[in-house]
Automatic annotation (TrEMBL):
It comes from the Eukaryota. InterPro entries: HAD_SF_ppase_IIIC, MDP-1_euk, MDP_1_eu_arc. PANTHER family: MAGNESIUM-DEPENDENT PHOSPHATASE 1 (PTHR17901:SF14), MAGNESIUM-DEPENDENT PHOSPHATASE 1 MDP1 (PTHR17901). GO terms for molecular function: acid phosphatase activity. This is Magnesium-dependent phosphatase 1.
């Protein structure tokens, strides 16, 4: 599926929901792209998973901000690849640093930088330990086995909608 078709399908998917996250956060390695940055050279031309760019553009078209939370030890390579792919300016926050905190520190920084509450975020990552840790913070988190795709976007939006409607019910009590 081409980038434009992925974007159109992502926009159709977004149209099925009424509750949207204010911020969607992506891991990089094996979530947006199919490799580890530290195993690559800055001189290479990176590629994204097939649906990734279309999903990013659909989210931006809907007015939903996007951010990065990556534990890559090679920040310079990651940022170079984002630039080469023409998507670096899309992200309102880029927390790319090595850490043993399973991304909790990344999310604290993203929250401080954006002012967006953790409950208003949706997160995609390929490492289950990160999903577990960030979920405990109140972020709707989705485990992706083979990168972000339209099916995982639907699942994430569905889970976010459920979480936000149960929060609204709790607040009404």
């Amino acid at each position: 599926m081409g980038e434009q078709r992925a974007k159109e399908e992502a926009l159709r998917t977004l149209g099925l929901f009424q509750a949207f996250p204010k911020l969607v956060v992506f891991d990089l390695d094996y979530t947006l792209w199919p490799f580890y940055c530290e195993c690559r050279s800055k001189n290479e031309m990176p590629s994204l998973y097939p649906h990734a760019k279309g999903i990013l553009y659909a989210l931006k078209d809907k007015g939903i901000d996007v951010a990065i939370a990556s534990r890559s030890p090679t920040t310079d390579i990651a940022k170079t690849f984002l630039q080469k792919l023409g998507i670096q300016s899309m992200f309102v926050a880029q927390e790319i640093f090595s850490s043993w905190t399973h991304k909790t520190e990344h999310f604290q920084r993203i929250q401080r930088r954006t002012g967006i509450s953790l409950k208003s975020m949706l997160f995609f990552d390929d490492e289950y330990r990160n999903i577990e840790a960030v979920s405990k913070m109140g972020v709707t988190s989705i485990h992706v086995e083979n990168g972000i795709n339209l099916e995982k976007l639907r699942l994430g939006l569905r889970n976010f909608s459920r979480a936000s409607s149960s929060t609204n019910v709790d607040q009404a009590d």
